[in-house]
Amino acid sequence: MEPDKGWTRDSLFDGRLILCQPREGYRFSIDAVLLAGLTSAQPQERVLDLGTGCGVVLLILAVQGKGCAWEGVEVQSDLAELAKANAELNGLKGKVVIHPMDVRHVPTAFPGGTFDLVVSNPPYRRARSGRVNPNRQKAVARHEVLGKLDDFCRGASHALRDGGRLAIIYPAARLDDLVAAVVRHGFRPKKLTMIHSCEGEPARLVHMECRKGGGPEVLVTPPFYIYDSKGGYTEQMERLYRWPPQEETGLNPLEKKERVYGLGTQG
């Protein structure tokens, strides 16, 4: 797919990953970088992305070898087709599979217990809260128009094997809703990272990994800061953009072998 007035062609990982996305519609944000970079995955794990958009998170995980099979669910047919095109563009046709379907249909469309890891950056604004973007793609991606948090957690619980993990990026202001939802659907939070725009400001986002059927105790990692005092990226954030992937240290003393991967410069 060549760039034109309706699309842009962006390069990540210094050109190792190419992504086409709408010029005016929903475009992936730093949330995708954080979700892909802070989520751990083993090479033998099967991964499902709920609300995959143009496929950015799923494709990042795939090119980094985080998992062995990758599938995505996207309710908006135009974005689902774009995700398929992006997979093919990067030589991942057949390895990355996109399902154009509603996340609410996951419990009837997939066999139970198929996946080891589910990732998601679900819509975070309630359907009737705040200003709804007039752009349909953006409205569906940001507001709970075609699926609420419970629908994403229900789908994840069905798709995951016992002991499988759910990784989510969500607004810190709705952390109580997130914890309540995952517990309702059989998960226990296991790792929590509070994400701040900069030091001294309240957390803006959370990255939470949950385990299906897990026990008590949550590892709360040191805070993650996106910007430094001069307005540039912190070392933590820069690390997510570097290539080749570098060993992370200090974030998780219980998972010393965990690697945090990131993006190259966007073109």
From TrEMBL:
Top-rank taxon: Bacteria
Alphabetized SUPFAM superfamilies for the sequence: S-adenosyl-L-methionine-dependent methyltransferases
InterPro entries, sorted: DNA_methylase_N6_adenine_CS, SAM-dependent_MTases_sf, Small_mtfrase_dom, tRNA_Adenine-N(6)_MTase
One BP annotation, GO: methylation
Pfam families: MTS (PF05175)
Key word Methyltransferase present: yes
Calcium recorded as keyword: no
Keyword vocabulary terms for this entry: Methyltransferase, S-adenosyl-L-methionine, Transferase
CDD domains: AdoMet_MTases (cd02440)
Domain (Methyltransferase small) ranges: 33-169
Protein name in the entry: tRNA1(Val) A37 N6-methylase TrmN6
Organism whose genome encodes this protein: Desulfacinum infernum DSM 9756
